[in-house]
Structure formats: C-alpha cells, structure tokens
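Students often ask what a holo structure prediction actually looks like on paper. The answer is less mysterious than it sounds. You provide the chain, you provide the ligand, and the output is a string of discrete structure tokens encoding the 3D arrangement of the protein together with pyridoxal-5'-phosphate.
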Amino acid sequence: MITKVRQHPTQNESLLFETSSPGKIGYQLPALDVPPVDPSEVLGAEYVREEIPDFPEVSEVDVIRHFTRLSTWNYAIDLGLYPLGSCTMKYNPRVNEAVARTEGLMWIHPYQPDALSQGAFAILAELERVLAEITGMDAVTLQPAAGAHGELTGILLVRALLEAQGNPRKRVIVPDSAHGTNPASVRMAGYEVVNVASNDRGMLDTEALARMVDDDVAAIMITNPNTLGVFEEHIIEVARILHSKGALVYMDGANLNALAGISRPGDYGVDLMHLNLHKTFSTPHGGGGPGSGPVAVKKPLEPFLPLPRLQHASSGWSWNYDRPHSIGRVRAFYGNFGVLVRALAYIMAHGGNGLRRATLDALLNANYLRKLLETDYEIAYSAPSMHECVFRHAATGAIAKRLIDYGFHPYTVSFPLIVHGAMMIEPTETESKQELDLFVDALISIAQEVKENPELVQTAPHSTRTNKVDEVAAARKPILKWTR
Ligand SMILES: *Cc1c(COP(=O)(O)O)cnc(C)c1O
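The corresponding structure tokens follow.
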C-alpha cells in the first residue's frame, strides 16, 4: 500500500526540518591535508558547540528542490504586472545583473587595500555625482541601506546642522499622507511628529502649514509626488514657509521615478532627500533586501554626512575619516555595493534622455489606467496623477484578492491611510499597453462581479494553494507548524 504521496509540487511542501534524515549531507569536502586543530583550543571551549539542535540533515538536491518548489509559489515581476502602489515593482533589465557580476566587482572585499579598490571607488564617486545631478543637490552619501535608513540618516543630519547653529529644535512636520516610515524615522531621531492635513485636492494645505511652523519646528518631511501620486504644486511656497523660520525641507524621494529627468528637488527648495535605488534605479526588491537609500544634501549639510567620505588626490581615491562634524557611521562599510553598481549601470545605459523617457512612460501608464478605470472605480482625488493613481472602493481588500484569480498581483490595499478603501495602483514604465489592457479588463470584470456575484469576490482567491485566510486570526493566534 502506498502510504505517502507527495501532492503536486505546486500544492504542498514540507518544511526542511520535516524532511531531515540522519546522516544526509549537502556537500563533501576533500580530506584534510593539514594537521587538524582543536577548535576549543583556538576559540575557547565555551564558543564551540557539538551540534546545532535540530539542524535539518538533507542532501544538496533536497535543498535545491525544496527552494525551487517554494519559488514556484511566488508571484514575480517576471510573471506579469505587479501594480503594488508606492513600491515601484518594475522589471529590472538583466544586463545590470551581468554588470554587477563582473568578476572584479563580484569578488571585491571592503577590506581590500585602497590601491586595489580604485575601480570600485571610481564607481561610487561617479554614482554620487550623477545622483547629485539628477536630484539637483550638492553632495550624496551612498551609505544608508534602504529608504527608511536614509530617512533616519537625513533627520540626524537635520539635527546635526541645527545643533551646530545652537538649537536642535523639537518638532518635525509630517503630512498625513506620508509613508509610515517617515514618522518612525522622526521619532528615532528624537523629534516629535506633528501631522499636517492634506486638502481636498490631496495636497498639503499651505495655510494650515504656515500656522504650524514656528521656532520649534526643525523640518518638514514631505513626499513628492506624495503617496496619492499627486505632485505637491505648492512645494516652492512650502519651502519658503519653512526657510523663513530657519527650518529645513526634507523630501522623501522614494517616488523619484515620477521626476527623474523632468524636475529636480534641489531646484525647488529641498535641502535634503533620500532616494530608493532599489525602487527607481533597477534593483530587484521585495522580500527584505538588499536595498539602498542614498541621501542627497545641499552644501550647508555636507560637513555632517556620515563617515567616511570619498576623497580624491593625485595618488588616487581613498577614504576620508577626518571630518569632525560628521554624524558618524550609519552602516558598516559604504552601502550595498552590488545595488550601487546596478544603479550606475542603469543610469548610464539610459542617459539623461532615457531617464526622462522612462519617467514619462511611467506617468503615461498610470494615467492610461486612471482614464480607463475611472468609470467603474471612484478616483480618490481629482488632481492629476503622476506615476500612480489611487481609487477608493469599500471592497478594496476583496477586489485585491480576486485579482489574484485573474493572474495579477494585488495593488496596494488601504494605503495611504487618509483614503478610506484605498486601491493604490502603480503600473511603472516597464508595462506594455497589452498588459495594462488585460489588467483593466480584469478590474472592470471584478467591478461587475461585485454587483452581480459579491459572494464570489468576497471569498476570493479561488485559484491558489490556500484560499482566503483569516488575517486577524493569523496575526493574533499564529500556528507555527513545526514543533519539537
Ligand atoms: C518604499 C518607501 C519608503 C521606505 O523605503 P524602504 O527602502 O522600504 O525602507 C519610504 N517612503 C516611501 C514614499 C516609499 O515608497
């Protein structure tokens, strides 16, 4: 009798712990050809363990098949549209992967002597230069490892500058439409968060703002275009209000893919900003990294940038640690090098005109979707959309799940928080008209289903390994399957 049948590989998969079988190993090393040492003598007995408890014993092919099967459960940008608003899930040209895997770059080590790292230094310096040019800023640090890390670095820079002027101040203004990382970064840097409301056009209310800015305000943290996909039309006035009270303008530049090649934050009063290279400049992301969140600043903030800084002399590139005003290190070494290489490769392949073209295509795609969906879905704000558009629908969560049955990744659900029932859609520039049309057809068909067969939508998805999960129970009473 057959007792164990593996279900179709796309339907079920045991944990590696459960497939463990004593004695199996994943690799074989050649016989030792040097005298053995006793690790407890070298490391100290307390640092040596005899075994790793419950470490799964599996063969190489077990491991490969396990993870390959798991990978087939994933939806990926290589399978189709991934319209997750605010996240900029776009196709990343494979050529940039090839560049990052160039032998001399792939095997480089941060402890390598400077003399052997001159090429890497030149790459970093060139990337800093082009990012400064794209943003209209004066200096860039590549150190922060992600967008949120860039935000924290940026607010620490604000604090350092104001402290040097004699008063670090107390508050940072954050619009109510901001990404959740913004208030978190402000708090981590030791400031209080003050919210400013958006007006009925989805923009910052400059009159409300003017009333809030006093000598205790250190900065505003503004996203532009904001998370509604709307360009802050009054950004110059916003900067004027802040600057008139000696406060700074920090821009969350995660949405730079709506601006690159068209408008430069440094030209409209922004004092410092971060960029998300893993969103705008071609690094596959999601699943936790690696990322890169460079911070670009205007001249007055340059002395405070994290240590070390690149410097160039007749002997070549080296690190400069002699910077008494620096906020210090924010990360080991100098950023996620592979991500930085991909970004520079992407920027150089596009050139200025290419980046501008990509931006215009991103705007065109978002507005194409907006136009075609406007009849069946209510647009949240009438102001023109940039690279993403936000609709509202009471059934946003169910519609998102139903999209999975139509072969698409859901859009961003219920964010930004100020739009009740938000459906936030960002197609990016890499989608074709055909793919966008399929997506539109799917959403229009679902809008019809909501009216004619709401049960079908409410219980979606129907085509996946697991169907609708109880998200509340999953969060409150997680069942962690593997128990000892
Ligand atoms: C993604 C995003 C962030 C955070 O970036 P991470 O790299 O995920 O830390 C911040 N602000 C906005 C507007 C974003 O879209």
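The first helix runs from residue 16 to 19.
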